[in-house]
């Protein structure tokens, strides 16, 4: 079923209303849909490089708005909606432990979830459930999602099709390594 969703999502990139489809996918991915908008951004920017910044902007705005929906699910409907979504992602067993430590880290979980391959929807729901301050969530979501979508669009705009394999296979790892180095740097400054 995931493969069919993935193929369907990619096919939307060639649709005449692909920008609206991207907005929809970015919105629902931030709260419950399993396929990330990144897979649509790649073919859309390669097909129309002059629209790279518009594509990244639409993905950012829709993703953050979807994140607000995820936050609302966590804050107001966790038992009815949020918990089943997290259970379907295999994250239910760690929810209580996660809840206890989540807010201690401030904006970091949102930044990490927004930049890395970790499912952003988990972070949006957990942010609402744990009561992370909404403005912290919102600002960090904007920074994280804009960073990843604009860097992705910028790489595709600048280097075109030759960068596609790198982007599809390694960009998530690069962002993960960046976050690890960033956290390591803060740790070193604080404790060394």
UniProtKB/TrEMBL annotation:
UniProt keywords, alphabetically: Membrane, Transmembrane, Transmembrane helix
One Pfam family from the record: VTT_dom
Lineage top rank: taxon: Bacteria
Annotated ranges, domain VTT: 39-155
Keyword Zinc-finger recorded: no
Organism of this sequence: Silicimonas algicola
Any GO CC annotation of this UniProt entry: plasma membrane
Protein name, entry field: Membrane protein YqaA with SNARE-associated domain
Transmembrane segments: 21-46, 52-81, 102-120, 132-157, 169-189
């Amino acid at each position: 079923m995931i493969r069919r969703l993935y193929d369907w999502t990619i096919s939307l990139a060639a649709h005449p209303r692909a920008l609206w489809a991207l907005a929809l996918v970015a919105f629902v991915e931030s709260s419950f849909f399993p396929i990330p908008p990144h897979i649509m951004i790649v073919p859309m920017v390669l097909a129309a490089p002059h629209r790279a910044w518009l594509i990244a902007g639409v993905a950012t705005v829709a993703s953050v708005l979807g994140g607000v929906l995820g936050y609302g699910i966590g804050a107001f409907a966790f038992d009815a909606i949020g918990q089943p979504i997290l259970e379907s992602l295999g994250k239910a067993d760690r929810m209580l432990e996660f809840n206890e430590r989540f807010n201690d880290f401030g904006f970091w979980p949102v930044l990490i979830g927004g930049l890395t391959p970790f499912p952003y929807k988990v972070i949006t729901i957990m942010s609402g459930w744990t009561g992370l301050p909404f403005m912290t969530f919102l600002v960090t979501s904007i920074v994280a999602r804009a960073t990843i979508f604009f860097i992705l669009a910028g790489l595709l705009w600048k280097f075109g099709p030759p960068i596609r394999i790198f982007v599809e296979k390694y960009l998530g790892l690069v962002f993960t390594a960046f976050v690890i180095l960033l956290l390591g740097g803060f740790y070193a400054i604080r404790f060394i």
